[in-house]
Structure prediction request, 274 residues.
Amino acid sequence: MSAFDKVTQARSNSRLTTIDYISSLFGDSFFELHGDRRFGDDKAVIGGIAQLYDMPVTVIGLEKGRDTKERMERNFGSAHPEGYRKALRLMKQAEKFGRPVLCFVDTSGAFCGIGAEERGQGQAIAENLFEMSALKTPVLSILIGEGGSGGALGLALADEVWMLENAVYSVISPEGCASILWKDSTKMAEAAECLKLTAQDLFKMQVIERIIREPKTKDSKMFESLKGLILRTFEKYRQMDADELLRQRYERFRKFGNNTEPFDFVEPQPEQAL
Prediction:
């Protein structure tokens, strides 16, 4: 499958969304919380508290919606500043009560409308990055579809980042990249190859820690396995004191771009979390 085929898969209307993952992993234990306490509630960001077996966790995700009506209501997963501020409010609450944070990322990018800019879109994302870098509780982010630019990064400054095998993560869309490099958006397939945006590329570059196989709606065994893997990951990081947790998170990002030698790379098999 080519890089642009992966982009097409990541954008597919048939993909599971954040709500599907929350329902499959947490069932009725998820309790949604609303609003940023400053402007309003952004339906592109869903967040709340859930039970991961016996562990209370905070769950936050970018939600595109599953049909035309839902997608319009949720702004196609493109969050406004109040969405990022809601996410940050829930993260700080999680830190206060010692709950790990699980983020699901699926967005083509943050909303760039006039109102969003007037309310401080760039500042809201920057504040999330600043605060997440120092959050004294474990953070895990999973890219389940598109991971577009700062809109995705605003929920992905984490101790570990995982990706579904057909998800993508990039600073710009292939169409945008092709328009800039070649003044021709039809060269999007070539741009996708250049961007190295697939899970396999990013695993090779050590930008992500794990590749997860694509689940199906009724794949209860897969979701139970993923749930166990998330639990074990949180338990690992909860054993660290706050200083060590923050040090490792800092070192994770500081190493990006430091590799001057070719990577020793074995093609990863998509995780089945067993």
